[in-house]
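Write out the 3D structure for:
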Amino acid sequence: MTSNPAIADSNELIRLRYAAKELTNFPKLQARQMLAGGHRSQFRGRGMDFDQVRLYQPGDDVRSIDWRVTARTQVPHTKVFIEERERPILIISDLRSSMFFGSQRLKSVVACEVSAALAWAGLGINDRVGGVIFGAQEQLDFKPKRSHHTALQLIRGLQKFSQALLNSQRDKLDLATMLEESRRLALPGSTVFIVSDFHDLNSTCEPHLFSLAKHCNINFCQVTDVLERQLPKPAQYPVTNGERQIVLDTSNKQLRENFAHQFTKRENLMQKLCEQLAAGLLIFDTAEPVMQLLAKAYGKRRSGRAFN
């Protein structure tokens, strides 16, 4: 257990398991059977749910012939079923140095809570859950499994990487490299959640995102802080990166405009990619409770579809 607000508390992440039970619409449907995937496939075959009756075609399974319709019409008809297919969940957690920032809570702590809640919600619908945690200098992979042990391993990894941010280090990986690495771990048909501040989202990321989107459903979980959207009120502020300190003069009008423009530019790119990839987007503010937004997206009273 840790009482340091700069480090994600594993006990708190474990307790999210109970709150995640309320996410009954996660990510699309509830599982219909134990050990059966809860997501309808576009493939038709001998599955759990009846879809339609159509004219018999050469090659159809004779066991699927609808004898009642065939007798009534005097023309062979066959039943068609919608196949239930599992959709593994892969959670990509960005715990690089840019996440060690926040005016209310640290983005890294919020990202850990989001990742843990998603993992518990996935297990709650009997899907396999895995993840990749990217830190400043290393990464940790978890293959998707239908196992609470895997969720606990993921949580321990989140706490470890969040604690490692206390030691100032240069990032070894950029977002584009993270996405390229994630492609190797994402199984076809997976629902992929990318939890990050996306501070280095740029055109080099796009080929990897489009490649992921060919076989997976992508969802962006962006963690932001009010100080990233606009500079604090005009004054002189001492700022440090842990190695050196400078004075930031926020009364400079051009500086304020440029700062806001950079954030808006990244947000516009996010929106554009969401449209092109048919991806979901949830924006988590460091000042707001994580479960509040997840409940709005996946809770019983959800009014619209936030994710794919």
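The chain has a mean pLDDT of 86.
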